[in-house]
Write a structure and sequence with these properties.
Layout lengths: L4 E7 L3 H8 L14 E6 L8 E8 L2 E14 L3 E8 L2 E12 L2 E9 L7 H30 L2
Antiparallel strand pairs: 1-7, 2-3, 3-4, 4-5, 5-6, 6-7
Length: 149
């Protein structure tokens, strides 16, 4: 079992200024360290229950496709999606907590239980590739929001 991974960044902005980057899945490419694109399949974009298809980068697949659903959209506090591929289900949750004039953004990523060769690879890839890439995206979110004053 892969323990959920938690990432944080403190941004010099209010949750309301950050929310457009968090609560609009199409804007996640603005702060992704690798190419990322969304195609809405059903429902109103970014609304709970809406479904999408994403294309993005994973270490084993540079053009990885996933199917997903928006499971939470509570502006400007929390946005979460559940996506799946042949390896299982992933849940990404972004939460915004105001602290004075700053906001701490916490991203929690739940991974599927690894199968096959990934049972051995995940313990190596998680600290060396996956965690640094996700934290880089969080840092890019901070830079993007703070530069868009």
């Amino acid at each position: 079992m892969v323990k959920p991974q938690v990432f944080t960044v403190t941004i010099n902005a209010t949750p309301e200024r950050i929310w457009p980057y968090i609560g609009d899945l199409n804007r996640h490419d603005d702060w992704s360290p690798k190419p990322f694109a969304i195609e809405w399949v059903s429902g109103e974009p970014n609304a709970v229950g809406s479904t999408y298809r994403s294309r993005g980068y994973l270490p084993q697949d540079k053009d990885h496709s996933m199917e997903g659903t928006v499971v939470s959209s509570d502006a400007p506090k929390r946005f979460a999606v559940r996506s799946k591929d042949k390896d299982g289900e992933f849940v990404n949750t972004l939460e915004l907590m105001p602290q004075g004039g700053q906001t701490t953004v916490t991203r929690t990523v739940e991974f599927p239980v690894p199968k096959g060769a990934f049972v051995v690879l995940v313990p190596v890839l998680l600290p060396t590739v996956i965690r640094p890439a996700i934290q880089k995206g969080m840092n890019m979110l901070k830079a993007k929001v703070e530069s868009s004053a």
